[in-house]
Design brief:
alpha+beta, binds zinc ion, six-stranded parallel sheet, 10 helices
């Protein structure tokens, strides 16, 4: 309150002072002109106060009330005064300069009625002034801003206190007058000129209209160059970075690519001339999600499109292919931010076909097992981003798949050599054979040309056991992984052999007697044991295994396999395997079905090893008579026979004690089923039944 009074007092003093000066100046002017008339030639010119300026107008302008007067001679400046109907004159401004003729009163208050007047001054004093002044009803102009948007030029303004309507005006640069383009109610503070064409240069203004229909002025300096938002024609996530292409924008002087990360700020990528309609962000971090936009620019005026999402993608590095025994292994180095990888293979038509997707970004290899030995394949790997596109790796790596050979047999002969034989492999250009003494390390034995699939190793010592593996050589000069290994057998393939088999055990007495006689004659047999008996007779299983007998699977509960569900069948077999392996460390590789029942698809398909039947049935369980069993075997024995007995009965044990030395005396080698099949060159298949090696 105190402050206001003080300001009023100062203004009052100025007011009083100026009017006394005004009165003095008038008198002085009159006296000077009289003197001039009296002595026109004898004295130097005397400075007199300027004449009273004529008022031209006081009118609304964009930033206040604009007062205009006619400049007068000899003036050094002008004082501008304002009053309302209720107050006296108040000096509101002084402008220096003879030629000054306008002043804008920016302190005027909207919806007020003001009178303005002006006097001129110089060192001699002040002119008079129009004491009535010019009346003006001041209506302020809404404070206006103009910007470009995707749909056109947006004109927005601040709310005007007394407007009942707003009128929007436009003046294209170079046009002679403003054009009224739209009238809006007083609750609207924005308008979009959708008719603006790209490159158009224009001023926009907004006037407030009061309820009596009188409108105020415009802020007439709101200039804009409209540029339509560049239309993104296409964009590509490439290994160089995100590439953006756009349509030309009329009026654009240049373009700027900008980018930001999620939640980040826009930053400049690059600015290009208006002749360039595409660009690449080469500084992006691979895999990071960016938003990209393109700005059209003309001077300080710009417009940009909606952002697109892009990634700099990176192809997997160091793609390699390698032969595995069962396929081609493709491996690569991962890249940052990848979501996963996809492996591609070229088909016969030369098109890439996706053959595998990793489920995650931490898997860097895949083995393609869908390959044929001797055929060549080309592979590549792509990085995948969940949002964004993939990028292939290199042109691809071509490799000829060559399967590892299968080593079939390593047969010892009494002439002190081992004949090693293996399967021929398509695409191989040769073979490399490795040998070791059991317990030792493999070393290269020999390299052989492609046509040769057997080799007779004469560097053997009687009584020693050897193992062999073989690799195939590829046209590229590399080698396949090793084949399976085979130990040299001490069997003579030229002498007859028989496989004695015992089911349903182990038992205590009978199994012990049978193992005793086998041990005594250095003979072997195969025991198809019942899983539920394995734990109780584990000592028998251990002993049989140590005597190089073979332990086969005869189901867990001696069930008729053909009547079981798939699940029960699998359990019967796997549970038995598990218990045997717990004792010997080796899982059975043969199965004999209880009662010989296997002839259903379910059994065949779900038996993960060969099914072993028999060719000589002693019916020992029926006769329980050792002599009957011995006679049956004597009259039915032949090279390759599989003889069925059961190690539950003392009669069977007694028969075995007689028949083992007898068969040996007849020249038979007593061997396990697996040994006999191998020696006879029979490659058994899972789920297939075999009843002899003949
Ligand atoms: Zn049985």
């Amino acid at each position: 309150m105190k402050k206001k009074i003080a300001v009023f007092l100062i203004i009052s003093c100025v007011f009083i002072a100026s009017f006394s000066i005004l009165a003095y100046a008038n008198t002085n002017q009159a006296r000077q002109s009289a003197t001039t008339q009296e002595q026109p030639t004898t004295t130097a010119p005397v400075l007199v106060a300027p004449a009273t300026p004529n008022l031209v107008y006081a009118k609304n302008s964009g930033y206040g009330v604009k007062v205009k007067w006619q400049p007068v001679e000899n003036a050094e400046g002008y004082n501008i005064y304002r009053r309302t109907a209720a107050t006296g004159w108040i000096l509101i401004a002084t402008v220096n300069g003879q030629g000054k003729s306008t002043y804008t009163d920016k302190t005027a208050v909207n919806a007020s009625d003001y009178f303005y007047t002006v006097d001129a001054f110089n060192k001699a004093g002040r002119s008079g002034s129009n004491s009535t002044g010019i009346l003006i009803h001041y209506i302020s102009a809404p404070v206006t801003t103009v910007t470009n948007s995707k749909t056109g030029v947006v004109i927005s303004w601040t709310q005007h206190p007394t407007a009942t309507k707003y009128k929007i005006y436009k003046k294209v640069e170079g046009a002679s007058s403003w054009k009224h383009v739209k009238t809006l109610n007083n609750a609207t503070f924005t308008y979009t000129d959708k008719k603006a064409v790209s490159g158009e240069r224009a001023y926009y203004g907004v006037a407030a209209v009061e309820n009596n229909g009188v409108r105020g002025s415009l802020q007439k300096d709101k200039f804009n160059v409209f540029l339509s938002a560049p239309v993104i024609k296409k964009y590509k996530n490439t290994s160089l970075g995100v590439k953006v292409y756009w349509e030309p924008v009329a009026g654009a002087e240049k373009y700027r690519i900008i980018r930001k990360t999620e939640g980040g700020k826009w930053e400049k990528v690059k600015t290009v001339s208006n002749k360039t309609l595409g660009g690449t962000d080469k500084n992006a971090v691979p895999g990071v999600k960016y938003y990209y936009s393109v700005k059209a620019i003309a001077g300080k005026y710009t417009n940009r499109n909606s952002a697109i999402v892009g990634y700099k993608v990176e192809a997997p590095k160091a793609i390699k292919t390698k032969l595995e025994s069962n396929g081609v292994k493709i491996s690569w180095q991962g890249v940052q931010h990848a979501d996963y990888y996809a492996v591609y293979k070229k088909d016969g038509a030369g098109k890439w076909v996706k053959i595998h997707s990793t489920k995650n970004n931490s898997t860097f290899s895949y083995t393609d097992k869908n390959v044929v030995s001797g055929a060549s394949y080309t592979y590549t790997v792509a990085t995948w981003y969940k949002k964004g596109k993939s990028i292939y790796g290199s042109e691809g790596k071509t490799i000829q798949f060559v399967a590892s050979p299968k080593l079939i047999s390593a047969v010892y002969s009494p002439q002190n050599n081992v004949t090693v034989s293996w399967s021929a492999v398509n695409g191989a250009v040769g073979y490399k054979l490795y040998k070791k003494e059991v317990g030792g390390k493999y070393a290269v034995l020999t390299e052989l040309p492609v046509g040769q699939t057997t080799f007779v190793d004469t560097a053997v010592v009687a009584g020693k056991e050897y193992a062999y593996v073989v690799k195939a050589k590829t046209a590229a000069g590399t080698f396949t992984p090793k084949s399976n290994s085979k130990k040299s057998s001490t069997l003579d393939p030229n002498k007859p052999m028989i496989a004695l088999t015992f089911d349903d055990g182990p038992s205590n007495s009978a199994t012990t007697r049978i193992l005793n006689v086998l041990e005594k004659h250095n003979a072997r047999a195969t025991f198809f044991v019942v899983g539920s008996r394995v734990d109780s007779y584990s000592y028998q299983i251990k002993r049989a295994y140590n005597l190089k007998c073979e332990i086969g699977n005869h189901s867990y509960g001696h069930k008729t396999l053909t009547s079981l569900s798939v699940d029960s069948l699998k359990w019967e077999l796997s549970e038995t395997d598990r218990r045997i392996q717990a004792i010997t460390g080796v899982s059975p590789v043969l199965m004999r079905p209880p009662g010989g029942s296997y002839k259903t698809d379910t059994v065949r398909k779900n038996t993960p090893y060969p099914i072993i039947m028999w060719s000589v049935d002693t019916r020992d369980w029926e006769s329980r008579n050792a002599t009957a069993v011995v006679n049956h075997i004597k009259s039915h024995a032949y090279d390759g026979a599989i003889i069925l007995m059961h190690d539950l009965y003392d009669s069977t044990a007694a028969a075995t004690e007689i028949i083992v030395p007898w068969l040996i005396s007849q020249g038979y080698q007593l061997v396990t089923v697996s040994e006999m099949m191998e020696a006879k060159g029979i490659q058994m298949q899972n789920g297939v039944a075999y009843s002899s090696a003949r």
